[in-house]
Structure formats: C-alpha cells, structure tokens
C-alpha cells in the first residue's frame, strides 16, 4: 500500500484548529427577541423552548441576559396592544418596539436591529395593505364562514405599492427611537429603495438597511407565528414571498436590493437554503446574513427532548454550516446557547 496523500494527517488535535476553514464567533450572531405590549409578565413560547415574549418593562433585562452570553446584537419583533387593517401601531411613536428601543438604547450597548413589517400589526396578518379584491374576499369569508374562491384568486393578497409608504414610516419611527439598523422583511418590491429614501429624508443617512432579500414562503416559520402572533387570517404569503423551488430568482431579488441601497442581504430560512446562501455570497461583495428560523430551532429542540439528538452539538454544527456556506451574520434562536459554548 503506497498512499502519498492522507488527508487525515491534518485532522490531529493541535493541527486541526490551525487548518480549520471556518470559525464561529459570538460577534457573528444576532439574537431575536419578542417585546409584547399585551402582557405584564414574561410568557414562555411553547413551540420555542427557552424563548419568551417579554413586556417592555423587561426589555432591558432581556438584552442584558443576551449580552452576558457574549452576543452583541439583537433583532426586535413587537406584539402590539391592538391591530387594525393598516397596522398603524407599527409606526406609532409609543408603539411597543419604539418604547422598548428607547429603553434599550438608553441603558445598554447592544446593537439593536428592528424588523420592519406589518404582519404583527395588521388584523388580517398580511405583510402589507390588502389589495381591494383580497379585502372583499376576506370580509366575505368573515361573514360567510369560508373563503369560497379559487386558489388562483386567493394567492393575490397585498397591494405592493400602497405598502411601501407604510414601511418607510415604520423604519423612520424605529430610527427615531434609536434603531442601529432596520431590517425590512415584508418582501415588498421596492421596499429597500422606499425605506432608504424615507430614512435619508428624515436625516437618518447613517442607519443601514439589512434586507430580507431572498425570503422564501416557507413552512419552517410555524413556531415564530406562535411567538409573534402573525399568522395570516386568510390565504398565504405566496404572492409576495419567494417560491422555494427558485434560486436564480433569489439572485435577481438580491441585485434589485443592492441597486436600491441595501447594506446587508439576508437569506431566510437558512439550513434548507444553503445553496442560496452560497450563491448570494458569490454574487455580491456585501455582507450576507442568514436567518436560522424558528422551525429549524424547534425541530432540533423536539428531537433533543426525545433524547435523539445532542442539542449543543447539532446547534453548533447548524451554525457552522450556515457560516461555511457563506453567511457573515446569523440570526438564530441558538445565539445565546452557542455563544456561551464558544
Ligand atoms: Zn411580515
């Protein structure tokens, strides 16, 4: 046996770290947190073990817990006290995210990112203003107890262009309350440009935009909808979010967002779309973020609860894979646990 090449020579302890191609750092991780205006106490989220919705009064304490693990950045989601058809509480000066942000930026050094969308604030749960036809179908469904329309008809839900102005208002209100970066997630065509223009017009030229550029219409978001109470009341989001079958289209979405001024480009979800993460990373010089979503978290937690997986090992391996695929930033519910283990 004459083997010249033996890759295992490099795998010995002492050497393996020297030749390791990818390293996870706590500073790569962004921890999502949920601020809830409907509660005075922390409420556990059943489908996401270890995560809670917190009232505004607990927002600073929650951030301090996250920072204690070494994670330096959070992304805030809000559950408002009330919802309406246009989601007006999303840009209210005394809105739940705005109030929490003021406290967080006054009292901590965390880098505070905000999710910019309407689905948690609209009574219909869609990520924008309803298109007239969709509104009519929904009202009919409410009175008749069912949506008796064709699938093709129900796929159209949100009026794209009317939504743009509202997204600008939300982003501006977040920036005014101290957001360090805004992250539009509504998958509205033109959202990055509209938000950039509004922010610049209001003097927030230094607030970067992390765009959910390639956001798929994914079944892996399920547990998040428990957490943020943002499930659509009718229909689904396949009109505005991307078809999981497409990857070339993700590059087109990314190009459009770069043209409109996106500073960071996100792919969501992460693990089922690592090919997309890699292609986006190859396509652009901008930093790439990947969102390791609630379903990716919940399925590992469920298997670990049954004793079928070692949660610490699979969490780390998941994040390492996302980074290896090309993500610079990772939004993940594992942020605190993994950061602590590093
Ligand atoms: Zn949304």
TrEMBL record:
* GO process terms (BP): protoporphyrinogen IX biosynthetic process
Could you name the domain of life of the organism this protein comes from? Archaea
**What is annotated as the active site?**
215, 268
Give a Pfam family name.
ALAD
Name the InterPro entries for this protein: ALAD, ALAD_AS, Aldolase_TIM
Cite the CDD domains for this sequence: ALAD_PBGS (cd00384)
Q: Does the keyword Metal-binding apply?
A: yes
Entry's Gene Ontology molecular function annotations: porphobilinogen synthase activity; zinc ion binding
Which pathway, per its entry? Porphyrin-containing compound metabolism; protoporphyrin-IX biosynthesis; coproporphyrinogen-III from 5-aminolevulinate: step 1/4
Q: What is its EC number?
A: 4.2.1.24
Please list the residues that bind 5-aminolevulinate 2: 294, 333
| Name by which UniProt lists this protein | Delta-aminolevulinic acid dehydratase
Organism of this sequence: Halococcus thailandensis JCM 13552
What's the source species' lineage?
A: Archaea, Methanobacteriati, Methanobacteriota, Stenosarchaea group, Halobacteria
């Amino acid at each position: 046996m004459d083997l010249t090449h033996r890759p295992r020579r490099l795998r010995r302890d002492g050497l393996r770290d020297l030749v390791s191609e990818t390293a996870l750092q706590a500073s790569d991780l962004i921890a999502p947190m949920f601020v809830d205006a409907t509660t005075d106490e922390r409420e556990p989220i059943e489908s996401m073990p270890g995560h809670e919705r917190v009232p505004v009064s607990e927002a600073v304490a929650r951030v301090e817990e996250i920072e204690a693990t070494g994670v330096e950045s959070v992304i805030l989601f809000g559950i408002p006290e009330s919802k309406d058809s246009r989601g007006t509480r999303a840009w209210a000066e005394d809105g739940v995210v705005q109030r929490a942000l003021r406290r967080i930026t006054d009292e901590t050094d965390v880098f505070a990112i905000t999710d910019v969308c309407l689905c948690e604030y609209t009574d219909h749960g869609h990520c924008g203003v309803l298109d007239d036809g969709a509104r009519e179908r929904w009202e009919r469904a409410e009175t008749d107890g069912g949506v008796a329309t064709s699938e093709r008809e129900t796929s159209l839900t949100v009026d794209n262009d009317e939504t743009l102005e509202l997204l600008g208002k939300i982003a501006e209100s977040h920036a005014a309350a101290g957001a360090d970066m805004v992250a539009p997630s509504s998958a509205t065509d033109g959202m990055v440009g509209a938000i950039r223009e509004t922010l610049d017009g209001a003097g927030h030229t230094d607030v970067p935009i992390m765009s959910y550029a390639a956001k798929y219409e994914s079944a892996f978001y399920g547990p998040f909808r428990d957490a943020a109470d943002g499930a659509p009341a009718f229909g689904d989001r396949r009109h505005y979010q991307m078809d999981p079958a497409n990857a070339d289209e993700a590059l087109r979405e990314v190009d459009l967002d770069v043209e409109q001024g996106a500073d960071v480009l996100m792919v969501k979800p992460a693990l089922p779309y690592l090919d997309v993460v890699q292609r986006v990373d190859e396509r652009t010089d901008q930093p790439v973020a990947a969102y390791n979503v609630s379903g990716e978290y919940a399925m590992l937690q469920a298997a670990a609860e049954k004793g079928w997986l070692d949660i610490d090992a699979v969490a780390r391996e998941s994040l390492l894979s996302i980074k290896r695929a090309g993500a610079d930033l990772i939004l993940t519910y594992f942020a605190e646990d993994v950061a602590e283990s590093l």
